[in-house]
Amino acid sequence: MKANQSMKTVLGIVSATLVLSFLSFFAFAAELPEQALSHANPRVQEVMGAQEAATPDLMAMPDVLGTAVGQDDSGEVTILVYVNLEGKNPAASARNIPRSLRGESVTVEFTEPFRALGKPAPSTKVSHTAKQTPPIQLGTSGGWRYDLANGYCCGGTLGSLVQKDGTQYILSNYHVFESDIVSGGNSKVATTGDFIIQPGLIDVSCNAANAQNVATVVINKSLLNSNVDASIGQVVPGMVQTDGAILEIGTLSKEIVAASINQLVKKSGRTTGLSRSKVSGLNATVSVAYDNECAGGEAFTKTFTGQIIISNRASKFLAGGDSGSLMVEDVATNPRAVGLLFAGSSTLAVANPIAEVLSFFGATMVGQ
Amino acid sequence: MYKVRICPLLAVILLLIVCSSSIGSQVNQTGQKESMTQKDINAVLKDHDKEFLAIPGVVGVYVGLLPDGKTPCLKVMVIQETEYLKRRIPKSIEGYPVLIEVSGVIRPLKDRTPSN
Question: Do A157 and A141 meet the contact criterion of CB atoms below 8 Å apart?
Answer without folding.
Answer: yes
